[in-house]
Design goal:
Elements lengths: L14 E10 L2 E8 L4 E7 L6 H14 L7 E7 L5 H18 L3 E4 L4 H14 L19
Parallel strand pairs: 1-4, 4-5
Antiparallel strand pairs: 1-2, 2-3
Length: 146
């Protein structure tokens, strides 16, 4: 009899949520990756007014469709940068909220390349507990005074 760790259909496989605040053609995206590196869910949220409000609902809907739960996550990773300050703040807020509610680690990654994702997952596994992650912006703010 196989143990649950060896059984690929077991829901005990560690999963990671990767959030990207808009480095791909002006869209927000999220990826759910298993610990072995296999992408289970890949979704793009087209950026339009208030699209950040849709991200958490889209994550929940995608998880439900694949019969996964938020509790299956072992960590949350957020890609640094992004063109929109609101998108970056929103994605980091979502990542921190999910990680805090589940008491799992959250970390940043430089890009969504496979090597960067694998390194971020390892950092999350080593961290073992939640710490607030502060946003990394791609440039200095451009604030105009009226």
């Amino acid at each position: 009899m196989k143990s649950k760790i060896q059984n690929p259909k077991s829901k005990n496989i560690k999963m990671f949520l990767i959030l990207d605040p808009g480095t791909v053609a002006g869209s927000l995206r999220f990826i759910v990756v298993r610990q072995d590196g296999k992408k289970v869910i890949f979704s793009i949220v087209k950026r339009k007014r208030k699209s950040i409000e849709l991200v958490l609902a889209r994550i929940a809907k995608a998880l439900h469709a694949k019969k996964y739960r938020f509790q299956d996550f072992a960590g949350v990773c957020v890609a640094q940068g992004g063109e929109s300050f609101s998108a970056v703040r929103g994605m980091y807020a979502i990542a921190n909220a999910i990680a805090w509610s589940l008491q799992i680690p959250v970390c940043s990654l430089t890009d969504c390349a496979e090597v960067s994702i694998r390194n971020a997952m390892l950092r999350c596994l080593r961290a073992k507990r939640f710490h607030v992650l502060l946003p990394h912006y791609s440039r200095e703010p451009n604030i105009t005074v009226a």
